[in-house]
């Protein structure tokens, strides 16, 4: 199945990034959010992002216009009907996602594929909110979507081979590299990345080394482009803590216990770059 029209639900950071990634490849996009203001904000973000690519001469003005022409916006779910695949990229909240998915399931033709960009909720569980668990799959894009090459394709318990093949083909058409992952908490990347970041907080709290030296160690010793503590500040310490809590709860294994220092920073409101202070200070 070749996908030519993609619906995207949620025009926030990820939804607008996914819409842009599709549109620059000439794939038609129907981008939905709950309010006109949210849709407009998403579209303005896409336009700004395309402008940056234009400035860097990665695309031409004609390519920018062509990409924008591929994107239709709406606040009405019925506009999604022509899509062969709808990707849910709304707020990370189980209840919100269940509601959206049930609504989409009732509205869309039975053959339409459904995907979710969730970072932490079980694909099998979300699929159960629909009557098409075989045509349901996880597509975990990375932020910022236009720049990041990876898509984790997560197979729920009942995801069919045909669904897996169709979204793998789409991810490849978007210029991304898909990897196939069985439904499991944290998938592959967060399961490995977040415990490493968490360990960096333990190392910091035990006074083994300074934050700067921990980050320099991992950059220079492992060739990582950014140290784990600086990365935590970028991701948001609250997001890091939430993912560790999900891993800890889902696997019931003490190796995933969140570092008390990470908890302390979050309790203090030191959430990273977005609050101006995390491990490091970003005050101007
Ligand atoms: P965001 O808050 O930037 O955007 C979410 C959007 O969903 C908002 O615009 C909101 O108005 C909209 N929304 C909420 N309820 C809706 C509804 N009923 N119908 C339509 N739209 C609705 O969030 P985000 O960072 O873009 O995250 C979206 C999803 O992607 C989440 O599941 C998140 O876990 C996942 N994710 C995020 C990242 C990241 O780095 N931000 C990375 C990978 C995956």
Automatic annotation (TrEMBL):
Site feature (Important for catalytic activity) residues: 140
Residue span(s) of domain 3-hydroxyacyl-CoA dehydrogenase C-terminal: 186-282
Gene3D superfamilies: N-(1-d-carboxylethyl)-l-norvaline Dehydrogenase, domain 2, NAD(P)-binding Rossmann-like Domain
Keyword tRNA-binding: no
Entry keywords, A to Z: NAD, Oxidoreductase
InterPro entries linked to this entry: 3-OHacyl-CoA_DH, 3-OHacyl-CoA_DH_CS, 3-OHacyl-CoA_DH_NAD-bd, 3HC_DH_C, 6-PGluconate_DH-like_C_sf, 6PGD_dom2, NAD(P)-bd_dom_sf
Database matches in Pfam families: 3HCDH, 3HCDH_N
3-hydroxyacyl-CoA dehydrogenase NAD binding domain: residues covered: 5-183
PROSITE patterns per record: 3HCDH
The keyword Zinc is annotated on this UniProt entry: no
GO MF term list: NAD+ binding; oxidoreductase activity, acting on the CH-OH group of donors, NAD or NADP as acceptor
Residues reported in the UniProt entry to bind CoA: 49, 56, 119
Sites where the protein binds NAD(+): 10-15, 33, 92, 97, 119, 143, 274
GO biological process: fatty acid metabolic process
Family: Belongs to the 3-hydroxyacyl-CoA dehydrogenase family.
Name of protein: 3-hydroxybutyryl-CoA dehydrogenase
Organism annotation: Ottowia cancrivicina
Species classification: Bacteria, Pseudomonadati, Pseudomonadota, Betaproteobacteria, Burkholderiales
